Every structure is written in structure tokens, then in C-alpha cells.
Amino acid sequence: LELNTYHTNKVYLPEIIFPHDIKASSNLEEVVNCDLILLSILSQNIRQICQDLAHLNLSHEKIIIICAKGIEQKTIKLLSEVVEDVL
């Protein structure tokens, strides 16, 4: 991933260099130990990812930021409601 190797995102943020302690990962076991989790995924995948995180005993003290917009189509819930329901 460009973010982890070069600490940049030249397509969307060409002028920005990210701090070295910011990492991107699709491995949920890695993110469980992070202080802050950014859910930068499609809104329709939020529930499944949260269910996967719940199985990894995610601490209730974790800060989770939802970087998606919209609602869950099946339930018409806000994404924050979905996260709260699952976690």
C-alpha cells in the first residue's frame, strides 16, 4: 500500500505526507491493537466488518471513526447505529 510505504496518497491527496505511525490495513487482527480505527469502507460493508471485529474482542474503549456516508440499505439505519448495534 502506498500509504504504508511512502506515507502518501498521490491520487486523492497529492500534497500531503502522512505521519509514519498512520498505517493502512485490511487485516482486522492488526487493527484491534490500534488506539484509533478508521472504517474507510463501503457503507454496506460496515455491519460485516464490525461483526468480524466483535469476534476479535475489540475493547469498548476503542475510538472508531466511520469514514463512509449513507445508510444501511437493509435496515435503513445510520452507519453509527449499525456500529453501535454490533459493537
Rg over alpha carbons: 14 Å
Neighbour order of strands in the largest sheet:
1-2
Major beta-sheet overview? 2 strands, parallel
Shape call = globular
SSE order, one letter for each helix or strand = HHEHEEEH
Number of strands: 4
Structural class designation: alpha+beta
Helix content: 25-40%
Low-confidence stretches: none
Distance between the termini: 28 Å
Mean pLDDT, all residues: 93
What distinguishing features does this structure have?
two-stranded parallel ribbon, globular, 31% helix, 87 residues, alpha+beta
Task: Please provide a written account of the structure.
With 87 residues, the chain is of the alpha+beta class. The protein is 31% helix and 14% strand. The strands form 2 sheets. The protein has a two-stranded parallel sheet with strand order 1-2. The chain has a two-stranded antiparallel sheet with strand order 3-4. The two termini are 28 Å apart.
Describe, in short, the structure shown.
By secondary structure, this protein is an alpha+beta fold. It is built from 4 helices and 4 strands. The two termini are 28 Å apart.
What is the fold's blueprint, element by element?
Elements: H1 2-6, H2 28-31, E1 36-39, H3 46-55, E2 63-66, E3 71-72, E4 77-78, H4 79-86
Parallel strand pairs: 1-2
Antiparallel strand pairs: 3-4
Helix pairs in contact: 3-4
